[in-house]
């Protein structure tokens, strides 16, 4: 259907962590409530919004490079507007418009709800708008949201962070921790389930310190258990916890609540106590490994992932070897690995003994193959087992060529599964659940292929979440019941793509 000439289109470009991804859903909801429509792929939008990250050095380079490219687009497209928000905008403030004077609006992390008003003001007054607030105006979850997935959703339980990690600028940009009340969170989850969502990810800068603001140290484990009581909610994840606040009551809640996924992202950052002390991380190697051990005792099949920073100021060869030792012992399913980059405004940026790039690169190139080898071995151990997948959208770039679809197992591992060359109309939809037997492994995914090129699907459950996805496509939902191929199945949902965290 052709777009009316008086309707303006928007495009949101998101950098950074899951918090930014969810904030972008809110920005989209705000713009659509104000009458904008999402631009078609490849079209030049009337409004381009950059939701930025300030955690890594190349975030600046990417933003200003993209802004430079858009200058010529804006020059030939009268009425086009460009807005910059997020952590980098909160940090750079007026510097954004000094370096890119063609930017119309700059807004921060605490006032994303102001975007439509700022765009209109810039249009009417014909001058750039800069609005940065020093504290949160309203909890973002009160804002309209255009969710990217019909079957999986982010749910913020807190914003901000009370930690003071020396490498991280996020607390100064997002403020101290603010917690939502449990009843408000659960009402949002119930509403999402009513819309067809079957998986939620509880989201916070330090998710398991939830409750600090209202004085309940076990609030997070109680919240997990309460999510387990919501009918129709089949999978619950959370990100990102901090080892300091990760207590045994959370482990017990994970193990005892059936819909909490056996998936845990636990940031390590370094395996050296000396480096952890310099990072101002309030745990040490033995405490961290103790958490991993207790999780595996309670949930033997848990897939544990992590974050690791290589080349922090003052890191010695011995320090780095200690990180490798922890990686070997912990046997992570996967890891987000980063080369340390200096961030102005953080204590680490002014520390002595900043390491040469060549040293950091050499260490990084030793860590990557070690973790890849471990990830591959952990995945190979799963070959031959039956798993249930929530069928996902857009997770397999080669699915069309390989006659496969993709989904996530209950431990959040990515699985590509065969549907056969003669696949007909009875295919699972994103949001449906299938069971398959794993046949091959790679470091970053698993494969389930059928015999002689046939379908790998053993059972198929058509879910409300699949109906919700189909309704988004403008196609009537099928009314026929589940197609079972023999074995009973369990659990269901599919997650959004993983993004690096700042925990």
Describe the structure.
The chain is 33% helix and 18% strand. The chain has 15 helices and 21 strands. Mean pLDDT is 88; it is low at 475-501. The chain is of the alpha/beta class and 503 residues long. The two termini are 44 Å apart. The chain has a seven-stranded mixed sheet with strand order 19-20-17-16-15-18-21. The chain has helices spanning 18-33, 57-75, 87-92, 94-99, 115-125, 170-174, 182-194, 219-227, 248-256, 273-279, 285-298, 317-330, 357-380, 399-402, 464-472; strands at 9-14, 37-38, 47-52, 81-86, 105-107, 129-131, 152-156, 158-159, 178-179, 199-203, 235-239, 263-265, 303-310, 334-339, 386-391, 404-409, 414-418, 433-437, 440-441, 446-448, 459-461. The longest helix is centred in the last third of the chain and has 24 residues, at 357-380.
């Amino acid at each position: 259907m052709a777009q009316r000439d008086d309707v303006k289109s928007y495009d949101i470009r998101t950098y950074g962590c899951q918090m930014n991804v969810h904030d972008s859903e809110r920005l989209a909801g705000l713009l659509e409530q104000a009458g904008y429509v999402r631009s078609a792929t490849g079209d030049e939008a009337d409004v381009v919004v950059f939701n930025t990250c300030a955690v890594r050095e190349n975030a600046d380079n990417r933003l200003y490079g993209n802004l430079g490219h858009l200058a010529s687009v804006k020059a030939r497209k009268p009425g086009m507007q460009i807005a910059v928000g997020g952590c980098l905008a909160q940090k750079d403030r007026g510097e954004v418009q000094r370096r890119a004077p063609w930017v119309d609006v700059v807004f921060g992390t605490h006032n994303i709800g102001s975007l439509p008003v700022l765009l209109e003001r810039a249009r009417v007054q014909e001058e750039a708008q800069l609005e940065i607030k020093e504290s949160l105006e309203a909890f973002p979850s009160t804002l309209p949201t255009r969710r990217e997935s019909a079957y999986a959703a982010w749910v913020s339980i807190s914003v901000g962070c009370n930690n003071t990690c020396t490498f991280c600028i996020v607390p100064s940009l997002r403020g101290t921790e603010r917690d939502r009340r449990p009843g408000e969170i659960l009402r949002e989850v119930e509403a999402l389930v009513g819309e067809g969502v079957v998986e939620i990810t509880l989201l916070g800068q330090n998710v398991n310190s939830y409750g600090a603001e209202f004085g309940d140290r076990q609030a997070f484990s109680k919240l997990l258990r309460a999510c387990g009581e919501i009918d129709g909610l089949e999978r619950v994840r959370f990100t990102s916890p901090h080892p300091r606040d990760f207590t045994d009551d959370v482990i017990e809640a994970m193990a005892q609540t059936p819909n909490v996924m056996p998936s845990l992202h636990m940031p390590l950052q370094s395996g050296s106590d000396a480096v952890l002390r310099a990072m101002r991380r309030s745990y040490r190697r033995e405490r961290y490994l103790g958490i991993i051990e207790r999780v595996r005792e309670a949930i033997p099949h848990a897939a544990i992932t992590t974050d690791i920073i290589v080349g922090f100021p003052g890191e010695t060869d011995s320090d780095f070897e200690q990180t490798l030792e922890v990686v070997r012992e912990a046997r992570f399913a996967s890891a987000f690995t980063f080369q340390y980059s200096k961030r102005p405004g953080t204590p680490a940026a002014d520390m002595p003994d900043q390491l040469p790039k060549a040293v950091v690169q050499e260490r990084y190139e030793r860590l990557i193959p070690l973790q890849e080898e471990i990830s591959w071995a952990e995945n190979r151990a799963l070959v031959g087992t039956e798993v249930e997948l929530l069928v996902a959208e857009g997770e397999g770039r080669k699915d069309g060529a390989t006659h496969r679809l993709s989904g996530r197992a209950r431990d959040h591992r990515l699985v590509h599964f065969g549907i056969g060359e003669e696949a007909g109309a009875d295919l699972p939809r994103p949001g449906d659940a299938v069971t398959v037997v794993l046949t091959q492994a790679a470091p970053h995914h698993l494969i389930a292929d059928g015999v002689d090129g046939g379908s790998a699907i053993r059972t198929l459950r058509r879910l409300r979440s699949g109906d919700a996805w189909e309704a988004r496509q403008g196609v009537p939902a099928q009314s026929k019941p589940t197609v079972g191929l023999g074995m009973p199945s369990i659990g269901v949902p599919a997650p959004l793509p993983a993004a690096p965290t700042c925990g």
